[in-house]
Amino acid sequence: MVMIGASQLDTISNVDLDNVEAGARITEFLLELGHRRIAFISGPDFVKSALLRHEGYRRALSEWCVEVDPALELMNVVWESDKPMRIRALLELPASRRPTAIFCWHDAAALEAIRIAQSLKLDVPTDLTVVGIDDVPSALECCPPLTTLRQPYTRIGQASVQIAISQVLGEEAEVRQLVFAGDLIVRRSAAPPAHA
């Protein structure tokens, strides 16, 4: 058996995106643009990839000597009804405390953040930069198109099949944990902050 995606099990071979590095890379990209009030929208606490991406986010902030603001971290965002309410509350903060950028742990949350921002008359990316991870088809179709970190799906799939075949043939006895880097895809949802 080979699992694809972040797994809680270390007894089964696993192939995945390097989630910590992905979280760090996206955050570094935002820092390089000049953002300092960067919000992170996570998923449920039981989703390991969300926690690992948050780890990367915090690592990048630390390396850039940017203090973590707990008010900008939306953790354990579980229910669909909960996500819009919490994102809206974040974007309704006074301009001096509102994030200039939002990093969402996956594209679906990022697309929701863009929709909510636009409903509040915030322009993306002039008033708010939004980024995600995955590069789902709708990331290119939304307005503006979403900046995201593309998962290396082909490499993950190929490596998973190779490990599985090796196991079937008896060539692969040890449990393997492989991670691959993703590609940063810069689109129009990201820009330097208009007001620091």
Model description:
The chain has 196 residues and is of the alpha/beta class. The protein contains 6 helices and 9 strands, in the order E-E-H-E-H-E-H-E-H-E-H-E-H-E-E. A 6-stranded mixed β-sheet has the order 4-3-5-6-7-9, with helices on both faces. Strands 1-2-8 form a 3-stranded parallel β-sheet, covered by helices on one side. Helix 3 packs across helix 4. The radius of gyration is 18 Å and the shape is elongated.
Radius of gyration: 18 Å
Instruction: Determine the CATH topology of the domain at 19-150.
Output: Rossmann fold
Largest sheet: 6 strands, mixed
- The fraction of residues assigned to DSSP E strands is 15-25%
Order of helices and strands: EEHEHEHEHEHEHEE
* Bulk shape: elongated
CATH superfamily of the domain at 19-150: Response regulator
Give the overall average pLDDT: 93
Structural class: alpha/beta
Q: What is the CA–CA distance across the termini?
A: 49 Å
Unreliable runs:
none
Tell me how many strands there are: 9
Q: Mind telling me the CATH class of the domain at 19-150?
A: Alpha Beta
| Strand numbers in spatial order across the main sheet | 4-3-5-6-7-9
> Number of helical runs?
6
Helix content: 25-40%
What is the level-2 CATH architecture name of the domain at 19-150? 3-Layer(aba) Sandwich
Keywords:
single chain; 196 residues; alpha/beta; Rossmann fold; 6-stranded mixed β-sheet; 6 helices
Short recap of the structure:
The chain is built from six helices and nine strands, in the order ββαβαβαβαβαβαββ. It has 196 residues and is an alpha/beta fold.
